[in-house]
Amino acid sequence: MKILIVALLTGGSMIGCMVGPTYRTPTTTPPSQWQEVPGGTAAAAPPAAATWWKTFQDPELDSLVQRALKANLDLRIAEARVREARAQAGIQDAAAWPSLNASGSKIRERQSSNQPILGELLPPGTQTVSNAYQAGFDASWELDLFGAVRRGREAATARVQAAAYSREDVQVTLVAEVARTYAVARGFQQRLAIARDNIKAQQDIVALTRDRFHSGLTSSLEPDQAATVLAETEAQVPALETGLRTAVHHLGVLLGQAPGALTQELEAVAPIPQAPPQVPAGLPSDLLRRRPDIRGAERQLAAATADVGVATADLFPRFALTASAGYLSANSGSLFKNDSRTWSVGPTFQWRIFDAGAIRANIRVQNARQEQALVTYQKAVLSGFEDVEDALVAYSREQDRNRPLRQAVSTSASALEVSRQLYGNGLASFLNVLDAERSLYQAQDALVQSDQAVAQDYIALYKALGGGWLESPVAGG
């Protein structure tokens, strides 16, 4: 047993070089600044907040996000994948250590009495039945002379980190999707409220025109025109109700619940979340650190690079120390006596001399995968820059659109009031009233949609900036 232990311990001093490429993070040159920074946006502000959705100051949204982070099914899948990657890394780590096995057996064997040599020496009819008892340990330790095991551990560690970043990317997407869907739901509520207010006002106009018609003050044209406008507005309600219910159903699923679970909770009408005046866009160089999908792609590239080393190590011989110690006896009574002891120790090696080019083909496979991982990383970086640029443009332009829409609502309301007074005094046609009603409803509806778009663009910008996660030791390590 002492010989076994000494032989295995001395193997640690025989570990040599590491073949294959040594990984280095690719050099990326980000733009010096964003092409467009909206007014009120802090270009060089601190990185995106981990809890950016709280800037809306909406308790209901805060509650929805927190519950989604605890129960969302996609997030649970991503967490399971992290655990899987950790377990795979544990398997790879074990390859660096000696393996030790215990065994024991009892064998009763009958040999042929007519076999060569033995059959000639034994008298006819001699029984050739015997017992064999064995107990002991055997161990082996592959000497990682060319770094196959170490490269494998390097790849496994990188994949654990990539899985952790993938989980954080799911969280970033989840938070943004909850906030976006919540803004959509509140937007549909506001549009429904506007439609119903206009329906009530238009019903009053229909009643007024009918009274005037019955009094002989006007023709049937005015009641028909008023009823047409009313019907057009009423026709908008089913589609708006469908949009609202669909958004609420989606929120329920995002929270890991049944589609209708939040219907009662979100029944009360509430305003669309208002984006704060400033957005910390930060610098483009910050994006490589803030976006988990980019960092995950970089870790996948590191793993693919290490895989090249694992494949390259197959070109070289594999050395191992093997040893065994135990007892062997023909009967159980003498199995553990000193004379029954056995042991063996010595190095072994294996070298694939001919494999018809399989090893070199595998190296080419791993090189191609490394190239794919590099291009995937480069694409992730460019896509990240594109997402932010697009979100900045959309946020800026929607704010520019929102201001005149707000003015249009104000002027449309004034125009409707004036047209009603003129019509009541017989100084304007009823057509002016109808046009003013249509204009006001359209302006109000467009303004609500713009408010919703501003909130959605704000959410999309934070998602593009990688907001919504905190770096963990696993992800960062």
> What is the second-level CATH architecture of the largest domain?
Up-down Bundle
Q: What is the CATH third-level topology name of the largest domain? A: Outer membrane efflux proteins (OEP)
Number of domains: 2
Q: What is the chain-wise order of helices and strands?
A: HHHEHEHHHHHEEHHH
What does this entry look like structurally?
This protein has 477 residues and is of the alpha+beta class. It folds into two domains: 1-20 and 98-143 and 317-350, Outer membrane efflux proteins (OEP) (Single Sheet); 31-96 and 146-315 and 358-476, Outer membrane efflux proteins (OEP). Helices cover 58% and strands 10% of the residues. The protein has twelve helices and four strands. It has a four-stranded antiparallel sheet with strand order 1-2-3-4, covered by helices on one side. The longest helix has 67 residues, at 148-214. It is elongated and about 140 Å long. Mean pLDDT is 86; it is low at 3-14.
Outline the fold blueprint:
Elements: H1 2-10, H2 59-71, H3 73-94, E1 99-110, H4 118-121, E2 129-143, H5 148-214, H6 221-234, H7 236-254, H8 287-290, H9 292-312, E3 318-329, E4 341-350, H10 358-424, H11 430-464, H12 473-476
Antiparallel strand pairs: 1-2, 2-3, 3-4
Helix pairs in contact: 2-5, 3-5, 5-6, 5-7, 5-9, 5-11, 6-11, 9-10, 10-11
